[in-house]
């Protein structure tokens, strides 16, 4: 999850360039770029294709395993999300979006905007601080060259124009993480969203960019800050953000199931399934906005397992059992009821490997929840919601079975780094919500101060922050780690 906004470009110089109650940067899960120069103009993701900058996808190798030590390397690549890209006229280099406002002469409505505006290629390392080396992807939080970029979100590609599609039922997903350089208030996220394989090109004729340019994003927060949804600009009803000069929200949201494998910084981590009853553009009550949070088509809270929140406050962090001061391996297993790929998803297990040692997930230490529990099941989620006093939207939206259905339909791998303009990341690493006492079950989620995480602070103090995802593997349960 992450909030996504567009970059700011120099005019005519186009070459520059809850249960968990989280605001999902999903879209609210990722904050985008801000490029600074004499004249500052914001730009966004779109659906036509520009020709100023060639789109060259950084390569990233992954592995498919059949048994421990028996893995085949696959050459893949990553692509930057469309919302971070420069959007300009198809006939020139005038921006279609300035600051946090659409140019109504170019974008009087969503369909016309899609015809008038082009999405250009990206300078991955120079502008966005995105680099790859072999099987490793590094995302820098802030990159400064001729401009200043904040955060990023990328997807794994199978080919130049298609996302890699994953179905993890009765399989496991493994990766290495180095988040030693991610302080309070930041989120180095790895997750899956039920996005279309081609980015929506086949379904929506006005989308000419597709997966090659990172289109089609959606998640369980039904984000409204996505600039183009279903091949049309989300300009109708657009309201500029009151606390972010480059962001805003339109009438429509973009909803789909989301499996958060990893939302974390050096102080806290959580994994969280978010089922939805549909995957679509939303409007009004179906988006689950405001007071209708639990009436929409997606489970925005999810059912999270955060070791600190579940009562073990010495399990994950600097110098702890899982020591976040150095790299470690994260293993997530998706167990089905009959141990087949066609069975019903019934459990999501977590393991860690560090310094050659396999580390079992922490146990729950919360009165009212079975102390032997160390994984996510429907029973765990129902009990957790009751004990924490949370609404069980997870069960209402289909629980683990619905999450399994989303995988069976196919999901896309997302990796990002972002800060949080909605709730300062307190839902991940501090006490949240702030109107409850930290001693109440489920409120304490990490050791970070409730004053931490303000974007103005972290963008200043943590400008050199970064996260490294590497050694991605998939395969049958027990095949991806020793």
Automatic annotation (TrEMBL):
InterPro entries: ConA-like_dom_sf, Glyco_hydro_7, Glyco_hydro_7_sf. Its EC number is 3.2.1.-. Keywords: Carbohydrate metabolism, Cellulose degradation, Glycosidase, Hydrolase, Polysaccharide degradation, Signal. CDD domains: GH7_CBH_EG. It catalyses: Hydrolysis of (1->4)-beta-D-glucosidic linkages in cellulose and cellotetraose, releasing cellobiose from the non-reducing ends of the chains. It holds the Pfam family Glyco_hydro_7. It is an enzyme of class 3 (hydrolase). The keyword Signal applies. Belongs to the glycosyl hydrolase 7 (cellulase C) family. This is Glucanase. It comes from Hohenbuehelia grisea.
